[in-house]
Structure formats: C-alpha cells, structure tokens
Design brief:
single chain; about 750 residues; alpha+beta; six-stranded mixed beta sheet; about 20% strand
C-alpha cells in the first residue's frame, strides 16, 4: 500500500489541502497498526491526538511515495478474548473459625485494574498475594467487600456462574504448574476446551497450535509427568490460552524456572498484554515486577498502589454459554482415571464380577432346571420309568407276554416292554489271513435294547452308532466281547458280521438252567457300535441288539425247543407323567411284584441343586456387598488422592456437576467392566455345569440337560445391575469431590 502526496504551491487553497492530506495520512497510518486486543476490536485506550503539521516550505512539482510497513504474520491471532477489568472495593478475607486458627489474609483492599493493563503484585511470602489472585479469578469469595470482574459482582454469583466466569474469562498460570500427570501434554492443554464441550477435532487442532507457539509440538503425546520444569510451565501457559481468556493471572510463573526459561515466560506475558490481554503477575522478585507497567505492593494483607489504575469497565459484552462437558468426554476421563490405579481397580472389578457371576448363575440355574424337568428327553427317561421284577418267592423268575399285557394295561402307563436276555456264544465273521487260525467262539450274553420310540435311555457308545430300528439285524458289542473275538482294537469290530447262537433262553446264573437250547439257531448280526462292559447286565461280556430282533429270535427258539414261557427277565413301565410314577409303583407292588423307580436319583440331584442355589445366593449377596464397599472405598480414596486435580479442574472452569459426573462415570466404568467379566465367567461356568450334569444323568437319560440356561435378558440385567450398584456406591464420594473448595483443593498435599 502506498500513499501518494502531490503538493503544488501555485494552486489556490494550498493550506487547506495540505491540512486535509496530513489528516488523511495520520488516519491511514493509524489504520495500519494491529488492533489493541488482537481480536479485531478497537483498543480501549484513547486514540493519540493527531499532530498538525507545520506549514512547510513550498515545493514545486514534487511527489513523495510513502510505503506502508509489511505486517508480520500473527500466530497469536484469535487467542485472546475481550480484555477484563477488575475492581476491588474494601475487600477483606479471613480464614479459620471456631476449630481453626483465625487468619486475616486481606485487610480492606481497594484497587482498580483496567482492561489491557499489565500489573504486578509484589510482596513477601504470606502477605496475601495468592489470596488476592484467587479473589480476582473467582476461586474464592471475600469475607467482606466486593470484587468485580468483567463488570460482574463475583462475590454474589452462584457457583455455576463463577465456573462460567473462570472458564470463559480467566486463565490462571500456577507456580506449581498443576498439570494432571497421567494425561498427555495435548490432553492437558485441551482440558479447558473439553470442559467447554468443544468437539474433539477442534480441541486437538487448537491444542497443537498452542503447543507450537510455546515450542512443544514434538511433546504432544508425552505424559506430563515426564516433562522438565520449564516444559511443564510452557504447557501451563499454553493451557491458559486454550479458551481465549481476557484476564491472565500468573502466580509466581518464574519461581520454579531457571533464568532463561523464566525470561521466556515473562516475554510471552508481555506480548500477550501488548495484544490486548489484562495480565496480573504475582511475584516476590523486584526484577520480575519491573517488567509490568504498574506495581501493587502487598504488606500484611494491605495493598499499596504505587501508581493509580485505569477505570474498569463496569459491564462487558456477554459471552455465549458453553455447551459444557460432553458425556463421551466424561466417560473418557472416567476410564483414564480408573486406569491410573490398575491393581486397585482390578481388585474392585473382581468383587463386582464375582457377585454378578453368582447372581447370573442362580438365575440361569432357576430357568434351566425348570426347562430340564419339562424337557421331552426327560419324559421318556428312567425318571418316568418303573422297573418290575418277579416276586421273591416265584419259581420261574421271569415274565411272559400275558404278564406284560396286564402290566401295560395299568392306569397312567404310556408304554411297557420287557428285557429279553440270553446266554450263548459269538462267532466272528471277520476274514482270517492265510495260515492263521480262526478264533474260537466266545461266550456272551445277548440283551435286548429298549424300544426306540418308548425310551430315551440308550447306552453310551464308545464308538460307532446305535441301531437304525427296532428290527435291524445289528448289534452293539461290548469292548470285552470284541477283545475275546480276537479284534486288536474294539473299534476294529465295527462293520464286521458276527453270528450268535443261544445256549439258554435266559441269562445263565449259577444253579439255574432255565429254557435250555436243544436245537440251536444262528442269528447273524452286523456290528455297528461298541459299548462299555458296564452297560451289560452284571458287566458280563456280550452284545445288545434291537428289541424286536431279539424278541423274534427268542420266539423262534421257543417254538423250536418247546419253551412254555419265561421270555422277559424284567418288565419296564413308562408312566405318562412324573407325578404318576409313585402311584404306578404302588399298584405294581399290590399285584405281588417287586417294583423299583429311578427318579430318586434325579430327585436327590434336584435337592442338591436347590442347596447350591441357596449357597450361590448367599455368595452373591456377600460378594455384591463387598464389591459395593470396595467401590465406595476406591472412589473415596481416589477423591483424596486427586484433591489437587479437582482444584485444577475447578480453577479451569469445571462446575460441581462436571466433577460429579467424572467420578460417577469412573464408578460406572468399574461396574461395567465387572459386569462384563462376571457375565463371561457365568457363561463359562454354566457350560461346564451343563457338561457335568449331562455326565451325571447319563444313567437316567440319554438326552442332554441345560440346567444352566443363560439368555440375553439375564446378560442385560446383570450388566445393568452392575452399573447401577457401582454408580450408587460411587455417588457419595463423587458428591464429596463435587463440593470441594477449589482454593483448599489446590493447596492440598
């Protein structure tokens, strides 16, 4: 930009034109300078008077080209807000009461600090400098008198309005830096922006810009505790500029720094003041105090102004209310706080997990057991069966078809079948290698399986499969019988054919030779599976064949050998419900037979599960109580350990509600983590329990029972319960944290 001045002394009205040109040049030169406050607003100091140029000597046909100075790039643009004026009217501040020593920190202090002033407050230790700074920053209230900041009566504002004043008008640079050690440098600088609800990307951008201004952009992701003293002070200065303050309060900012670092901080404060910020610097060093434009000396709580101050602005432009701390940032801070004490947090989380796991198991057990008792597999299991044996004084020791029909016609009998068992020999049909001797026939029993459609009590297989139907020519060999037939391994018998030849139409026992076979018949069977010897009666070697196959074979032998009865060694009756089992047993015994039920075993198991439910309930209640006490203790200890951090948060503008939510979020995070762990443990233990129950009930039913049944409702309820209990347990310590006095908290060690 250039201003062209062309003067001719031979034109009319020369003096008037020269005066007008001089006035325009003065106004243009004033327009080239930067704004007083660096924010696009006019400076509050009065404009300098324009000097009237003396009438120069006439210059003929001479032009003067004036080059405007180039503006340097301003990295501090938009870092400051509207300058804040301060006024104190007869302010006194006293500490202590009935239980504490009474101290008067300030005595009838009256002073004014105008916008854009740079004032230093000097005096010896204990003279009230820091107390004066706390009153100016809205951290404390006067005992008497009035404090005005930005035209607001600070002593009469609510805690909420004072927090807004600290957040949006004031920034304090502490002598002890007061950074949060566990946070990164970038997060410390962005903390005021986090409290103001600024979006994450904007926070990061502004924090990195501020760190670049103080020369620490390369340390952005470093934990604050790892910085040197000078670096921490620079971070504190960058944090002070985060929310565009109009008032900067510096409490001994060079007290912990070497001369070079201290000089850098003072130069930065002077530059900020030149750009429009009101700066109040507290120091006991006269050399530092000389950097300010005005000095206030403190002696025994009284202020002596060496120079008079400018009048303050009684009412300043309002600041739009900040949206405040976002719930995502609250959770983030809560998670970070919980992670600072990993061992204590892990122990507390474990307590919550134990309680939630026990409660989840109880609920899963109650629902699963009810479902298991009504499962279709249980309705055809031995729980609903009555085993009938011949009377003790009978001579035959067996039943015939007539007895089976009579018993099957009893009330509440859904199905009836008998067990056919014979003694004889098995012959292997496996091919024999050339020159090898075929294994001799092996004695063994052939026992009928229960009808497939009537009973779910199938034997447990070691290998292979069950017969396809009741009339299939297939057999399940016992492992001992397979070994006796010469197979190197029991599974090697699967797929081969064996021939059975009965010697007696019943199981042969010492002293008994019922239904001997005079005319043998061969029964060819395909081996489809292997069972344990325990599945056979009395553990005898042999095989188990389908019900219709064995019964037809026995009937063919009876016709050929002239047997007159004794087909079934036992008869099994299936009741139509569990409630009818005992009545059916009584009727069978009334007919003169022996009867035995298998439900006693399952009922004993049910009683055991009931006792387990009571034990787990007690464990869950104790665990949850201990977990709640642990969370309360953890949060209370955290409040004590983080008292100074609470003071920093409030000094930066956090409201009591913000502090409360941060600690409540920490408790909720612990509860959520404990609930998740507890639910996972409960699901794992439930699966192990179902496996164990299946093994215990194999003798009663071949079906599987989900005794522990966990569904989505149980999982959701467990998580909600964990979070609610943890939040309630941490609420009282959180309230204590929210009510902390910022001045006392900052002085806490």
């Amino acid at each position: 930009m250039a201003t062209l001045v062309d003067e001719r002394d031979d034109s009319s009205g020369t003096r008037k034109r020269r005066r007008r040109r001089a006035r325009r040049e003065a106004e243009a030169a004033a327009a080239l300078g930067p704004d007083a406050n660096g924010s696009g607003e006019m400076a509050t100091s009065p404009p300098q008077p324009v000097a009237v140029l003396a009438e120069p000597e006439p210059i003929v046909n001479q032009a003067v080209l004036v080059q405007a100075p180039e503006l340097e790039p301003d990295d501090f643009k938009d870092l400051l807000g509207q300058a804040v004026g301060l006024r104190l009217d007869s302010v006194s501040r006293e500490f202590g009461g009935n239980d504490e020593m009474h101290v008067t920190a300030l005595r009838d202090v009256s002073l004014e600090i105008g916008p854009c002033e740079f004032v230093s407050v000097v005096g010896p230790s204990g003279c009230g400098k820091t107390t004066l700074l706390s009153l100016m920053g809205g951290l404390d209230r006067p005992t008497s008198g009035h404090v005005y900041g930005a035209g607001l009566p600070l002593g009469e504002l609510s805690e909420r309005d004072l927090a807004d004043y600290r957040l949006q008008r004031v920034s304090t640079i502490f002598q002890a830096f007061n950074l949060i050690p566990s946070m990164t440098v970038e997060d410390n600088v962005a903390l005021p922006l986090t409290l103001a609800g600024v979006e994450l990307e904007e926070r990061r951008r502004r924090a990195r810009h501020l760190l670049a201004l103080v020369g620490l952009e390369h340390r952005a992701r470093t934990r604050a505790r790892l910085l040197s003293g000078g670096e921490q002070q620079k971070v504190a200065v960058a944090r002070a500029l985060a929310n565009r303050p109009g008032l900067i309060l510096a409490d001994e900012p060079t007290g912990s720094l070497d001369s070079a670092a201290g000089e850098g901080v003072l130069t930065l404060l002077a530059d900020l003041n030149r750009r429009g910020a009101t700066v109040v610097l507290v120091t006991h060093d006269p050399e530092v105090a000389r950097r300010a434009r005005r000095v206030i000396r403190m002696i025994d709580g009284r202020a002596i102004e060496l120079d008079s101050g400018n009048p303050t602005v009684r009412k300043q432009e309002p600041v739009d209310p900040a949206p405040r701390l976002h719930w995502r940032d609250t959770l983030k801070v809560g998670v970070g706080s919980a992670g600072r004490r990993p061992l204590r947090t892990a122990l507390t989380t474990t307590g919550v997990a134990i309680g939630i796991a026990a409660m989840s198991l109880i609920v899963a057990l109650a629902g699963g057991l009810q479902g298991a008792l009504s499962a279709p597999a249980l309705s055809t299991s031995q729980v609903h069966q009555v085993a009938v044996y011949p009377a003790a004084d009978t001579k035959t020791g067996a039943f015939d078809n007539g007895t089976l029909a009579t018993l099957g016609a009893q009330p509440h009998v859904r199905a009836a079948w008998g067990q056919v068992a014979m003694s004889g020999t098995f012959t292997s049909g496996a091919p024999v290698a050339a020159g090898a001797t075929a294994p001799p026939p092996s004695s063994g029993a052939l026992v009928s399986l229960a009808p497939i459609g009537s009973s779910s009590n199938a034997p447990a297989l070691s290998a292979g499969r069950l017969p396809r139907s009741d009339a299939a020519k297939e057999v399940l060999l016992s492992d001992s019988e397979a070994a006796a037939l010469g197979y190197l391994s029991a599974t090697g018998a699967i797929g081969t054919q064996v021939t059975y030849s009965a010697a007696y139409g019943a199981l042969q026992v010492p002293g008994s030779s019922r239904n001997p076979v005079a005319k043998p018949l061969d029964l060819k069977l395909l081996v489809v599976g292997i069972v344990s010897g325990n599945a056979m009666p009395a553990g005898a070697p042999g095989g188990m064949a389908p019900y219709a196959t064995v019964r037809d074979y026995w009937a063919a032998l009876a016709r050929t050998n002239g047997w007159k009865g004794g087909e079934y060694s036992t008869i099994t009756l299936l009741a139509d419900s569990g409630l009818a089992v005992e009545g059916l047993r009584s009727r069978v015994e009334a007919l003169g037979f022996q009867a035995q039920t298998f439900g006693d075993q399952f009922r004993n198991f049910e009683d055991l599960l009931g006792k387990m439910r009571v034990a787990l309930l007690g464990l869950a209640l104790v665990a949850l109580l201990l977990a709640c006490l642990g969370i309360a203790n953890t949060m209370y200890t955290a409040v004590l350990e983080r008292t100074k951090e609470i003071g920093v948060l409030k000094a930066l503008g956090a409201r009591a509600r913000d502090v409360l939510l941060i600690f409540v979020a920490e408790a909720a995070v612990i509860g959520l983590a404990g609930g998740l762990v507890g639910i996972l443990v409960a699901i794992g233990l439930g699966r192990l329990g179902n496996t164990a129950v299946d093994r215990l009930t194999q003798s009663v039913s071949s079906g599987s029972f989900d005794v522990f049944r966990t569904d989505f409702a149980v999982v959701a309820a467990g998580l909600v319960l964990a979070v609610v209990l943890s939040t309630v347990s941490g609420l009282l310590p959180a309230l204590r944290a929210a009510r902390q006095d910022p001045v006392r908290a900052l002085r806490y060690e």
